[in-house]
Amino acid sequence: MVMFPNLNLPPSLKPLQHYLKAATEQETRDPVIAYWCRLFALQLGMKLDKKSKEASAVLLPIMDWLEKARTEMHENEAVTNDLVAKAHLENHAMKLFTWADTEDRAAHFNKNVVKAFYTSGIVMDVLETFGEVGLDISEKRRYAKWKATYLHNCLKNGETPIAGPPTDELELFSEPQGNAYGGETKDYQTPFAPDQGRTGWPSVPEMNQTPTPAERRQPVTPAYEPQAVIPPYVPVQPSPSMHQTPDPEIIKKVEKYCRFTMSALNYDDVPEAIKNLELALRLLKTGQ
């Protein structure tokens, strides 16, 4: 594989660092991922700054590397065929996401889980090379980036994270402010920013890797801790009040539980979805 040059990114091209670092991490592990990450970085760089001399000193070497790499991998359909390439990237992203999500739900909190979540989100960004991503990928990308930041901050501050998706604040699933290319935002920080003194990212974990005892933390709560005790379901007899328009505040709460239901289904958590549907139904029937 042709060597990639060392580049000094000017401020205007700082958002490229996420994809170039991901490419470096995958250089020997999966050259196809490295290729598409750098192509995505080039496309982003052309949008951000293609006129300054500092930007040209970065973009031209990337362009030259891509041309040589494409020639070298001309027989690899995951480079020459967009459909095959898209499937390759999606499979890689989902493999990382599934591993990280399984470890997180089992309360196995460590840097490898943070890295897997974060890298899966970056590769899902790169999928935009082939057009707009679907809702499933978009939701998982949002969650992966949020979870990477959340776990990183907890581990950094010596706190024990809560396993699994949040249940009380839907806002935690909101897309970080800024563009979809991983630029700096006020709500989302890259766990491995250069100013933290790192020379590179931790290795992407092998799927059978076991965290060390020092890295593993004991769970303090289950993956989904019920917010309210749901009493056994008892059919409610129809009453005249049930045919009236519910109070707007009740409607607002019902909508919230329905959104929680959809969020839980996005991550295949059927018990949580059932719990929130029952809460919504009970509110509509009883107002309580």
What order do the helices and strands come in, and which of them pair?
Layout (H helix, E strand, L loop, with lengths): L16 H10 L4 H18 L4 H20 L4 H4 L1 H24 L5 H16 L8 H22 L91 H19 L3 H17 L2
Helix pairs in contact: 1-2, 2-3, 5-6, 6-7, 8-9
Largest beta-sheet characterization: none
**Low-pLDDT sequence parts:** 173-234, 238-242
Strand content: under 5%
Which oligomeric form is depicted? single chain
Output the number of helix runs. 9
* Rg estimate, integer Å: 23 Å
Order of helices and strands: HHHHHHHHH
CATH superfamily of the domain at 11-79: Vacuolar protein sorting-associated protein vta1
**What is the global morphology?**
elongated
Give the CATH class of the domain at 11-79. Mainly Alpha
| Share of helix, binned | 40-55%
Supply the CATH architecture of the domain at 11-79: Alpha Horseshoe
The CATH topology name of the domain at 11-79 reads Serine Threonine Protein Phosphatase 5, Tetratricopeptide repeat
